[in-house]
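User
Class, as today's exercise, I want you to study this protein, comparing sequence with structure tokens, and judge whether sequence predicts the tokens.
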Amino acid sequence: MPLAPAYREFYRAIARTIPKKNIILDPLRRVAIGVDASFYRLVPQIIVDVEQEKEVQAVLREARRLRLPVTFRAAGTSLSGQSITDSILVRLGRGWDRCQISGDAATIRLQPGIIGGYANRQLAVFDRKIGPDPASIDSAKIGGILANNASGMCCGVEQNSYQTLASIRLILADGTIVDTGDAKSVADFRASHAGLLTGLTHLRDTVLTDPALTDKIRRKFKIKNTTGYSLNALVDYHDPIDIMAHLMIGSEGTLAFIADATFTTVIEHRYKATALILFTSMEDACRAIPILRSQPVAAAELMDRASLASVQDQPGMPPYLKGLDQSVTALLVETRTNDADQLTAQVEAITASLAAFQTVMPISFTSVPAEFQALWKIRKGLFPAVGAVRQTGTTVIIEDVAFPTERLASAALELQDLFATYRYHEAIIFGHAFEGNLHFVFTQDFSSPAEVARYRDFMAEVVEMVVTTYDGSLKAEHGTGRNMAPFVEKEWGPTAYALMKRIKALFDPANLLNPGVILNEDAEAHIHHLKPLPATHEIADTCIECGFCEPVCPSRDLSFTPRQRIAGRREISRRLAAGAGGLAFRRFTARYQYPGIDTCAADGLCATRCPVGIDTGKMVKALRQEAHGPLATKIAATVGNHFAPVSRTIAHVLDGVDLVHRSVGTTFMEQASSLARKATFNRLPLWNREMPTGSGKITPESAGVTGDLRVVYFPSCASRAMGGPARHETERHPLPTVTASLLHKAGYRIIHPHGLDGLCCGQAFESKGFTVEADRRSAELSAALLAASDNGAVPILCDTSPCLQRMRATLDRRLRLFEPIEFVLEFLRDRLSFKQKEATIAIHPTCSTRKMGLEKKLLELAQACATRVIWPEDIHCCGFAGDRGFTFPELNKSALNGLAEQVSSCEAGYSTSKTCEVGLSLHAGIPYRSILALVDEVSQPKWK
């Protein structure tokens, strides 16, 4: 559908200020990018990625002139529909990631694009953190954390975004910038916006002259409350600048754009102990809450029996969760301190305080990190447990309400009765007990009017119960959004609601900032624009579009994220089911190829963050397989059947190209390669200055090595074909040679599997969607390694982590397979003497290293080799993705944005995959090598 005239004019106007690549008009991308974590859907007319304040001002100026609504988006993890629009969606692009910690770490200034978990990692060295700790903290950005007044499991109402805000920088609807932490900015604002500030003062006076309203505001914010605007700002602060700053918290982008903010940090305790306490009833669990509040308890998470049952069959869950009575209710209790001895005393005091209660099992705290993390896994697994088992086409809904804590038990039981009445038999209840905050999760089908009516009637009774019966909060921490906007007046009453409307009018008189969110006169807004979730692919159908996967996706700033890939496929499936066809539909579908398929690294890291464990890369590989015709399949089989000569040919070609490089120079090679690629419409792979050479002939010679220690060494096909150095690399030995040197140094005799040149784990075939050939290659390798290792008696080393991971998934289970980090730490460390080199080095855990849980082992090994190790933890996948770094080099470049600055002080970097090391070297400005090369450099034998 073509753009309306006003939007066309808006586009032309902002394109004079904002790069066109950051203005998205493509219909498929607008659908895919426009989704958020809620169960609502609106498709934006235009998406604008802003990278600096002047671009935000330009958007607001032109939107105001043309009277077009604007919605701001941070990470899009919002659950209540507050970050979607059918008008202009403004996303945070690159350039909003500055982080500044004060000298004593008492405050931290953050731009809105910073992910909450990143801020905490920067503060960890000071034993500090930001106050809010939402479950989405490793995905949610500071802009959204502030705009939704995020809290979480441990911060309560005392350390949420509102309470820990020190200052804030805003861009108002009229384009004015004000920084409440800058005296001159404040002085200028007082002069230019005296009317607005006077209006806030009048609102404060209105509240303070109404004792009943003042009391209501204070009372309602003693528990968690994000329904409506933060009216507590009118009673907590006198200066209208402070009032304005705190009204922005929880305003969901309806009052201004948050350009940055300064938080007061809080203590991150070093020592923790946790217990899962099983009470015989909901009433007992709730009676224990006020007792625990008087104890040194940092968190108390309530879980009903249905919650425990939803996760009891998952791996790693305690066996005692099965067979519990239906009335059993759990409290997950944690105590914290910076004094190890004090921790014991706190555990004893908490346990003694509950002596009068009959519990299903004796109360037992653990301070062992692996054990208390397993207990927290119960709590954190509840939401995905429901989402993962829902029927295709249904959505998972998580609501959060809060009650006065003294009435929590009766409210929870009444809520359970409502579930039964409305046939939500899978529903579970859990929450933050100290704040009276309950989350309830259930699945809902919106495909028929009857199902929509069931949801509407259920929510009507929930609203009545929360507001009328218990005087609670309809939204405790997930924000009002569209979901509770129709009920804000019911919760707060007409007087307070009128105040909120006056607040909105002061800041946004034209009602252009996120209209329909927080304040909405449509009594049925919560059942409009419901998101369809058609079946699209069996791997992805359980996706709840939460966006937790996005921070680790290498293509997130280039094309699509996993969430967007799935949303795009769903839109194609929806249109197909609706009867779409013809040229227009084929064109729409064709738009998916580059962002959806071509630029997916298929690394599987998304599954490590996904609440329901979806590996979108597997879906993309399946789509690649579906796209292959008979000719492509035949070519793949031919390559597999002649893998040895193909591999040798690649090595010879690389050596030949290197000779040309030596003759004509790097500049000429880069220019010529770029021209050739453009001439072939980007079909020709792009040469780069880090292009390796071949490895030469590989032999298992073990001269001088005596003893019974043996290892089967399988150099990956990448190591064999391209394991040699780049032209300018100072380390000239090929990887197989380096590995052999290290193994011999440790006293190992090397065995190579028979027919080594023709062996492959199948990774190269699988990534391109040739799964039949990939499995055939795996079967051949498995047989060869069984023979070489005496049916698994001899350990097997593969020098490339991605290949090793696939080998573990597909080869015979008798084989003892090790990648470089594991093998060194388990077999070589005790046979070698390490002498740390005086150097600063970098490490990069590959995707497979992370998925195998070895990233900290890599750090441990690197620290044994060098005096200082830098690990850029926010660089996840390098985006090289096998050979995709040659065919889609922009993916590698985008994934490694910012790496060079982080490793500029390093002399070299180390990893466990040759192709990854090529891409890392290219964009880091330092050479990256195998970690085996570093170990070989700094070690000497001590077994002789």
Q: What stands out?
A: The chain has a mean pLDDT of 94.
